[in-house]
Every structure is written in C-alpha cells, then in structure tokens.
Amino acid sequence: MKTIFEKSSGVDGITLTDSEANINFIDKSYLRNGEVGLPCVSELDVMRHYKCLSDMNFCIEKGFYPLGSCTMKYNPKVNEFLAGLDGFNIHPEVKDDFAQGALELMYNLQNALLKITGMDAITLQPSAGAHGEMTGMMIIRKYFDNIGEKRSKVIIPDSAHGTNPASAKMAGFDVVEIKSNSKGQVDIEALKAVLSPDVAAIMMTNPNTLGIFEENVKQVSELMHENGSLLYYDGANFNAIMGYTNPKLMGFDVVHLNLHKTFSTPHGGGGPGAGVVAVIDKLAKFLPVPVIDFDGERYYRNYKLPDSIGNVKDFFGNFSILVRAYAYILMMGNNLKNVSENAVLNANYLKEKLKKYYNLPYDEPCMHEFVITGEKQKEEKGISTLNIAKALMDENTHPPTVYFPLIVHEAMMIEPTESESKEILDEFVNTMIKIAKECNSDSQKILSAPHNTCVKKIDEVSAARYPDLNYKGNKNV
Ligand SMILES: *Cc1c(COP(=O)(O)O)cnc(C)c1O
Predict the structure, then answer these.
(1) Domain spanning 77-334: which CATH class is it, in words?
(2) Ligand 1 within 6 A of 130 CB?
(3) CA 33 to CA 390: how far, in whole Å?
(4) How far is the CA of 131 from the centre of ligand 1 (A)?
(5) d(CA 279, CA 301)
(6) Helix axes 319-332, 336-354, angle to 10 degrees
(7) Would the CB of 163 count as within 6 Å of ligand 1?
(8) Average pLDDT of the residues of the chain
(9) Closest of 335, 140, 132 to residue 228, by C-alpha
C-alpha cells in the first residue's frame, strides 16, 4: 500500500493562514528554511488512507480471536456509549462534591468486585494486570515490614505468566521457581522443599496457564499459611471460575483482576487496562490511596490510610474502563456464572475436537483455555507452531498465543472465550483440521504462509527494539 506521502497529489487539503506566532526568540539554527515536506492530499483521500490501514488490522469484529490468556471476547458496544457519556467526562481534580455520580459508580463497582472475589477491601487504581501484581506484591512487602519480619522470597510455579516473576522482582523480592508435576499442577513436594522462614508469598494462577485447575490449592494455602507466608492470586482470567468459586475460598490473601479481560474492554496492543487489587481484611490498610468510601451521605476519596503503600497511579486509575466493567456487571447480573460456564464449555469442546490432530500434552479437563502443540507437525514435516499460526492468518482467524507457557514445546494456547457460538467454534475446528491435513499434503504452503496478509513475516524483534517511524522517501519503502 502506498504511504500518504506517495499519494500526495500537490492538492492542498487545507488552507492555512500565515502564522502570527512570534518566533523571534527561537535560535535561527533551529528554524526550518526549506519545504515542510508534508503530504498534500484531500480530506477524502486521508479518510480512505486510514480506512485502508485499519482494514489491514485484525480485530474481534473481523473474526475469531482465540489468543490464549488474553480473553479476546465480545465487548458490548453499549459499554462504549456509556463510557463516553458527558457526565463521566470529568476533570480528575474536581472536588468530590461535584463528582458524586462517578464516585458512586466506583464505590458500587468496588462492592461488586468484592462480592465476586470474596475479598474484604479493594483498590481500582492499577492500570494493568502486571501493575496490579506489582501493587499486590508491594502490599505484601509492606505487611511483613509492618510486623517486623524479614522475608525476601516469593515462590512462583514454572507455569506462571511471565509478568509474575517480573512483578515480584520489581517489588524487591527474590523469585524461587518450582516445577509443575506430571499433571501440570503445583508439585506439593517441590513446594515443601523450598518453604522456609524467609518465604513471603506464593504467586499462583488458578486455573494455571495450562488452563488446568489446581486440585491441591487448599493444601497449598494451608502449607503457606502454616509457614507464615501469604498467597497471591493472579486473577487475570477470571472468566474461568467467576460465580463458581473465589480466591478467598481457596485461601488467597491478595488477588488482582483484569477488568480489561473478564469485564469487557476492547484491549490489546498494550492498553488501556484496569488491574484492580483486592485483599483480605488484615491487608486493607496497606492499599494505595485514595480508596472510594461512603459515609452514609456522600461518596468521597479516602486518603486516610496511614500504612498505605502510596499512589500507584494518578487520580482514579483508568476511569472509563471502570465504567465499562460496572455496566457489564449490571448487564450480566446473575448470569455472571454463565460466563464461566460457557467459557469452560467452549474450551473443552475445542480441546476434545482438536486432540486427534495436534498433540495435547496434558489431557485433563480444562477451564477457560487449553494448550495443544505443533510437535507432531514439527517432527514429521519440519513445520513449526509459528508456521501454523501464520497459516491461520490466511483463514481470517487470529492465531492462538504461541510458545507460551514456556514449559510446553511448540505450544498453542487456545482461549475461545464465552462469547463465541458453536458455529464459529466448528468453523475453527474445520480450519485447524484443514491446516493439519495440509501439513501432510502441501507442507510447502504452510511453511510459506501467510499468503493473504498485507505483510508477510515481519521482524518483530527489530520492530520493537529499533522502531523508526519517520518516512524516509521512496528509497526505504
Ligand atoms: C494478561 C495476564 C496478565 C497481565 O495482564 P496485563 O494487563 O497484560 O498486564 C497476568 N497474568 C495472566 C495470567 C494474564 O493472562
């Protein structure tokens, strides 16, 4: 596709008047003395250009998006409308008395999320799952400082999301990894072997990143608490258990939720998000300030938590995401339980349909997601999981999460989410079977995929490490 510079026709899209700005104070060496070099295109051409660019992107509105652990589900459009209401467009410095509606919404959302998690107190401030993890770990650290115990270690299973060890480390802990057992779950003996008086906490995801529910979670929590340690629950994928159980019942002390996954916000590409953190009673006083309170008459921002870890984000956090989450919870009502039911049903359906064609390393009932592999295709035809992912892009399907979790070779982590119909799931199954068959009959086609996308295989590492966003003229295009 041509860049907007190449499309430049010399037609002025806009007429600018002479600048009246006083630029005398700017050093001459900084002033431009040649042409600006901006493209000249009409408004209609600009619109077409950006529409074409957006068409090149894949999104949930275009097709199935089973990106494991990311919960790319349908986000009701009415939530977008509500988040955009005038009354919610308020200045973050406004006095509490002029923001009663917004504060009431936050207060009610806090209560709803406390019910859902079973916890006692909550902060809505963190702006991502990983941010919530770091907040939770800082709370745990402050707790031990407060009771005068020196505990420097955090235990994390090898199946954990990569953000977990990073967050623990950023909060000043040393990470101790433990291996999973043959069922893909926390190995109790391995856990016992690393328990010592300087262990502050364990960070667990349940179901873990293999999509498997940790059967021994109660035993883990008893062992940790006997050791004087705390339990952190990574609740990013709450659509696996919501309404059926909660982290409090499992014995956890701190949990973060990703509102931008479970509670509906269009996300991806790094934001925006809301990684709220809920805690049990004895940790409430360490929460970031302000928390939203109600004195029976008015809602207010409460800064009076003397043991608070402080602010983790300016003002309220990502407020418009809180609006979406609250709208979603109200809309779902008692059906929140059905969300988990359908998420788990859909994942198990796909797993059973696909296991004849792809390796299934842990053949257990799964929760909201599961992991298959391209190992068979790799061994037999030299086709990697990456090739299979690229082939899926030709079929109007977003690839699953690949090469994660790290403990599974050639992993494909599939999360259909609750909002997809059986017809769409069957279409995906057929596509995956077609690709599995083509790996045998036409391996060259799969190895050279994608064929229909606007760019082929991009150098993602260089794109991320050395982004060069300046147009350099035709020679570099
Ligand atoms: C998505 C996810 C995270 C991180 O959330 P971000 O909002 O991307 O920071 C952490 N843990 C698990 C299990 C996740 O799926």
Answers:
(1) alpha beta
(2) yes
(3) 47
(4) 9
(5) 19
(6) 90
(7) yes
(8) 93
(9) 140
167 lines ligand 1 (CB under 6 A): no
Tell how far the Cα of 70 is from the centroid of ligand 1, in angstroms: 7
Ligand 1 pocket member 234 (CB < 6 A)? yes
CB of 75 closer than 6 A to ligand 1? no
pLDDT tier, 475 (very low <50, low <70, confident <90, very high otherwise)? very low
Rounded to 10 deg, the angle between the 319-332 and 100-117 helix axes is 60
What pLDDT is stored for residue 477 in this prediction?
A: 37
- CATH code, 338-465: 3.90.1150.10
- State if pTM tops 0.85: yes
> What is the C-alpha separation between 446 and 430, in angstroms, rounded?
16
Domain ranges of the chain: 1-56, 77-334, 338-465
Task: Tell me if residue 341 falls in helix, strand or coil.
Answer: helix
Ligand 1 pocket test target in 234, 267, 312, 371 with most atoms within 8 Å of CB: 234
Cα–Cα distances (Å) from 470 to 38, 99, 217, 380, 466, in that order, read: 12, 42, 52, 44, 12
